[in-house]
Design brief:
Elements lengths: L1 H10 L6 H20 L4 H15 L7 H22 L2 H15 L8 H19 L10
Helix pairs in contact: 1-2, 2-3, 2-4, 3-4, 4-5, 4-6, 5-6
Length: about 140
């Protein structure tokens, strides 16, 4: 992750290079994996921020599969953060990201990306509709 952050600093100029977006994506993915494996949940927020930064440099028409997959991964980072913290607005952001991924037209060979988005959206909506967990002590 340190190498990604150092590379981002080196490339942090306008206009940004497509390499910058690729490094942001790699950093985001790494942060998400760390959040899943060892925590803390704040890693998911960092991952979401990096996925958003990558999306700023992506063209949804010219780079449709990558753009859509980045939206899926943004949604997943936000959903995992919401699961860990119970934050409903974050869960709503995840739902928006999954819907954005589904809104990108993709050729048939990239149908798996939309399937991932549908799965994440379904899980997020289900989580959104679930009753809150019972408090300790049974009250």
């Amino acid at each position: 992750m340190a190498a990604c952050r150092a590379s981002l600093e080196e490339l942090n100029t306008k206009p940004r290079h497509v390499l910058w977006a690729m490094i942001q994506y790699t950093l985001a993915h790494s942060l998400g994996l760390l959040g899943e494996r060892i925590g803390p949940p704040s890693r998911f927020r960092e991952a979401a921020d990096a996925f958003r930064a990558s999306l700023e440099e992506r063209d949804p028409v010219r780079e449709a599969p990558v753009y859509s997959l980045t939206q899926v991964n943004l949604g997943t980072s936000l959903r995992l953060l919401a699961e860990a913290t119970g934050d409903v607005p974050t869960l709503d952001e995840a739902i928006e990201a999954y819907r954005a991924a589904l809104g990108v037209p993709l050729p048939a060979e990239h149908a798996a990306i939309h399937a991932q988005a549908t799965e994440g959206l379904t899980a997020s909506i289900s989580l959104r509709s679930a009753p809150p967990p019972a408090s300790p002590g049974g009250n």
